[in-house]
Amino acid sequence: AAGTVPRRRAPASDMGRGLPLLLLPLALLAAPARAEGGTAAAEEVQIEVLHLPEACSPKSKKGDLLNAHYDGFLASDGSKFYCSRTQNEGHPKWFVLGVGQVIKGLDIAMMNMCPGEKRKVTIPPSLAYGQQGYAQGKIPPNATLIFEIELYAVNKGPRSVEAFNQIDKDGDKKLSELEISQYLKEEFARDGKKRHPSAHDEILADIFKKNDHDGDGFISAKEYNVYQHDEL
């Protein structure tokens, strides 16, 4: 609701950074906030396509996992408040589209975008940081934002049927602690990053805390598929 302080999400911890965990949220900005006035119409976001590749497939949709670089500017004076190329050793950012991991305006602006496409988008305050602004990100109150975005990849999102079935080894349509533990071990081995021995147990506990809503020790298809863009 208008006038409330936007909720902020903390950045992923070091133990999970760089790991494509299917059950952990990723953040686009350092601490993205919920937009105020979320009922604003999609046409309030202005989209200018700077480059469109000849082969435009697949197009992004809600729930897809995107990989992109972007620069953020204040429309008032053109000053840059964010550049993804100066963060995380310059690696493009991964995030899930359309589920509130980024400001509402970016969720709208990056729909139906294809790999290799570049866009310049203008986002009004109501779909960005609203009346409060975001002091930590050097964004003043009631700021209109401009983003220049280059999209690199559009992948099946973390809550897709394929992702669920990949973890659900016994096919019983629910994820046990053993299944998710095994999945984490496989992902750790695949990305080859060094982690503290306690990282596995901490991430496993966090996954169940955030997803096992009925506390039965399993993550059901319904609990897992919170984005509702596929049917199990």
TrEMBL record:
Judged by the first EC level, this protein's enzyme class is isomerase
- UniProt lists the gene as Fkbp7
Identify the EC number(s). 5.2.1.8
Q: Which reaction does it catalyse?
A: [protein]-peptidylproline (omega=180) = [protein]-peptidylproline (omega=0)
PROSITE patterns, sorted: EF_HAND_1, EF_HAND_2, FKBP_PPIASE
Matching entries from InterPro entries are given as: EF-hand-dom_pair (IPR011992), EF_Hand_1_Ca_BS (IPR018247), EF_hand_dom (IPR002048), PPIase_dom_sf (IPR046357), PPIase_FKBP (IPR052273), PPIase_FKBP_dom (IPR001179)
Q: Name one GO molecular function term.
A: peptidyl-prolyl cis-trans isomerase activity
User: Pfam families of this UniProt entry?
Assistant: EF-hand_7, FKBP_C
What Gene3D superfamilies does the record tag this protein with?
3.10.50.40, EF-hand (1.10.238.10)
From which lineage does this chain's organism come?
Answer: Eukaryota, Metazoa, Chordata, Craniata, Vertebrata
- The protein depicted here goes by the name peptidylprolyl isomerase
Species of origin reads: Erythrocercus mccallii
Could you list this entry's UniProt keywords, alphabetically sorted: Calcium, Endoplasmic reticulum, Glycoprotein, Isomerase, Metal-binding, Repeat, Rotamase, Signal
Cellular-component GO terms for this entry: endoplasmic reticulum
* Residue span(s) of domain EF-hand: 155-190, 199-232
- Which interval of the chain is the signal sequence? 1-35
Indicate the segments forming the PPIase FKBP-type domain, all copies. 63-155
